[in-house]
Amino acid sequence: MEFNCRQKTANCPIFAPVNLFSSVKSILVKDLIIEFRNRYVLGGILLYVFSSVLVIYFALQYNNSIQELSPVVWSVLFWLIILFSSVNAIANSFFREPEGRFFYYYWLISPQALILAKLCYNFIFTLGLSLLTFGIFSLMVNDPVVNYPVFLITIVLGGTGYSFLFTTMSAIASRAGNNATLMAVLGFPLVIPLIIFLTKLSAAAIASPGFTEETVKNIWMLLAFNIVQPTLALILFPYIWRD
Amino acid sequence: MTRYFLTLISFFLSLCTFAQGESVATSNNFMLSNHKVFVSVAVLTIILLLIFSFLFWIERRLKQLEDRQKN
Amino acid sequence: MNWLYTKWWKWLSAVLLFYVVIGSYMVPLSPGISKIGPLSFSPDSIYTFTISGYHTHFKDPGVGKIQFWFKSGNDYFQAKDLNILSANTGEVKFGIGSNQQDSLKTNNFDIIGNDDIDGTFALREGVTLIKASKVDSSSTVNATTGPVEVVHNKHQFLAFPYREILYESIRNTFFHVPMWFVMTALVFFSLVCSVIYLTKGNSLYDVFAHQSIVAALLFGICGLATGMVWAKNTWGHYWVNDPKLNGAAVGVMIYFAYLVLRGSITDEIKRARIAAAYNIFSLVIFALFIYIIPRLTDSLHPGNGGNPAFSKYDLDSSLRMFFYPASIGWILLGFWIFSILTRLELIKQKQEL
Questions:
Q1: Which of A201, C16, C81, C263 is 20 to 30 A from residue C131's alpha carbon, by CA?
Q2: Residue C69 · residue C78 · CB < 8 Å
Q3: What is the pLDDT of residue B12?
Q4: Which of B29, B45, B58 is facing C21, going by the closest CB pair?
Q5: What are B16-63's pLDDT values in tens digits?
Q6: Per-domain residue ranges for chain C?
């Protein structure tokens, strides 16, 4: 079974060959519509973010007053909440699909189209999640950010990094028997470099206005990670996906 | 074989008792002046010898297994 | 494939490692100054300093003229009235005038010695001058920057560099560092095997990739263990916050995850393909992590963050004499263990058929 999907669709008279862009778009739209219709999944994730912020809020209560957070601790807590909620959210993207539907996709589109659609979808989702977490976090705990441009770049790059990494890991884990623990085991060691740069950048966004040389260097590093990850995912996903 | 090795190991382990003794600095070379260094080298050599003899033993066993599978 | 079964390189690794273990312990450290007393002095009086050498040969016949200098900035002040007590200890007299104290670049004096057998040896920032509050112009004490007459700069015997903090533990270079070389070599070998597996689909390469990761993990753990013992003796703690250490820990974690992933898939072909994909993905991320981050942040390790590498002190290549054989020997041992694991796995697979 070594021939690729395009040949397969050509062999099969029912389905006309579909181009990459339109198939990415249709999967993306389908996923968004499902997400919107299945509002309890979305609601579950929102509740997850809200309750973890609440847990941190109450954990910080000491002597009837909220403890002051240093920039580093603030950004560590912030990125950890996003980490755990995005792992939970992204785990759904492959686990949710029943086995049969993958078989159906397999006949319809190329694996690159599927992984691109999933990457885009998870990117949008994680970005929304990070902004939402920031909103709730600044509402309940505090908002020490002074440098919004750097912080927004960090959120975008962080959301991208998380979503790309965990999409690939979720694809791998879904092939290994839909095991959510496995996804954490596989993904967490690889997320460490990202976390290091994200905490550095957001602590910098809290501490000082303007772009320092250090900040620019860290942004380039994150960009490098964010380019390498989807490239690898695109190359490797056909092998992961094939049965 | 095992008994032989154990005897050998216990013999060399007993050398450790000498390692604790006070020794007069006969030369100004710290490592060679007190003879502890020879104990360390002896112990290390024994460990290496054990590792390598174990590896060669496994090698021989594997060869036997491979030959048996071929026939 | 045949190289798994040939014997000569296995013998070579055994010979090299025996040479390294026995040879490296027999080579002494080069001469140095281990301590000096008193540790501080004030101007305008002559002090008697007791200097304790390490592996020095003050009493040997061919030692020639033994000289000591107190060095501040670029000024070499001569120490006078040398009195040799034993091969490793000597007393010198030294004092400085209060009218000289303001022309000094630094208050910390390096102690430098020289003789014909030991060459030049030194203790950095051994003695501190406590400056007098006012200059006493009637003082007769005056340190002179005498001429530096040196016959031999290098010691006359084979020896490892004498480094503060490290001392005799410098020999761990032949054990700790090659462990990481072995791990890196095996991990990259596994990457190549995974790529070949994905392109060719030959299940032999999957076995190679898997077993080389197992062997690499073994050496990774050994590298962590030797590193931790060394760190305790030099930096004071078993674990310090150092990018290289953290990178190593992450690497070991990634490859344990790889083994967990393999364990959780039962279908053989699926397992091979997904494990290969994860292997390639994680190794590229890990390589980015381990090769870029230590260059951005400071590390305690030699050769990083402004710390000079060992090669700088290794003037007469005594470290290289053992380090290169050690690296080759350990790498061969790593591949030997890998070959044994692979052959065992192949036998198991044949048995099941």
A1: C81
A2: yes
A3: 55
A4: B45
A5: 444 444 333 444 555 566 677 888 889 999 999 999 999 999 999 999
A6: 2-26+165-352, 32-129
ipTM: 0.85
Residue with the two structure tokens 């004096």: C109
CB contact under 8 A, C343 and B32: no
CB B30 to CB C344 under 8 A?
no
CATH of the domain spanning C32-129: 2.60.40.10
- Report pLDDT digits (tens) over C239-266: 887 777 888 888 899 999 999 999 998 8
Secondary structure, 3-state, C256-285: HHHHHHHHHCCCHHHHHHHHHHHHHHHHHH
pLDDT band for position A82 (50/70/90)?
A: very high
Answer for the pair C252, C217: CB distance below 8 angstroms, yes or no. yes
Contacts of B41 in chain C (CB under 8 A): 21-22, 25-26
Q: Which sequence spans correspond to the domains of chain B?
A: 31-71
Tell me the residue range of the domain where A155 lies: 5-241
Amino acid identity, position C344? L
Q: Give the strand order in the sheet containing C80-84.
A: C32-37, C47-54, C89-94, C80-84
